[in-house]
Amino acid sequence: MRIDVVTIFPGYLAPLREALLGRAVGTGLLDIAVHDLRDWTHDVHQAVDDAPYGGGPGMVMRPHVWGEALDDVLAADPRPARLVVPTPAGRPFTQAAAHAYAAQERLVFACGRYEGIDQRVVDHYAASMPVDEISIGDYVLVGGEVAVLVVVEAVARLLPGVLGNPRSAAEDSFSDGLLEGPAYTRPEVWRGHAVPEVLRSGNHGAIARWRRDRALERTAERRPDLIAALPPDALDEADRAL
Ligand SMILES: COc1cccc(COC(=O)c2cn[nH]c2)c1
Description:
elongated, Trp Operon Repressor, Chain A, binds (3-methoxyphenyl)methyl 1~{H}-pyrazole-4-carboxylate, 35% helix, single chain
């Protein structure tokens, strides 16, 4: 998979070269190219933003700079690409979306700043390629760069060979629609807190049941929306008895 990121703060994407992702890049599982949007400005001030039509606070990123940058970035590789624009106004990014993105040959991320990018940029490219405006949560960041780090990590860990242990990607949170329950490791007792007995019983049926119960409890408590979204056959009568 090839990932391109266009941003006015390339340094913000340095963490992509670290650790797990750095290894994936090194082993060729993932190509990541970061581009400075200002390389496509022609004025001495390298202006990328301007005042919003219709008035209002803040600035909007200018379409022509984005157009020149995205044209060049897209032309640099023949693989079909999906343009992803992180924004508070986007559709929620979910684990399902991460799996869909992991199947893409190429992702191009546009990092917005200020009050956002002139809407005509998204509208223009949406006529010739898939364009997603996505939100990583209901809060406002200063720019899209941090959201790109979140999305790239969620996607890259799903790529075969990137994670040490492939099973954990299949069994991680949300894979069965529920939150992950509590996890424990040695020592058996820590500051007077003992590991739940069942986990040391060796009774794998009871352990699976206990884990499912904890996941259901936690999900009902913290994310009732996920319970409501479960398909009707997702809960068996043991689940319902909980
Ligand atoms: C594209 O226009 C803008 C404008 C303002 C901030 C940003 C950065 O994204 C977020 O703040 C965000 C993404 N998911 N949740 C919050 C983008």
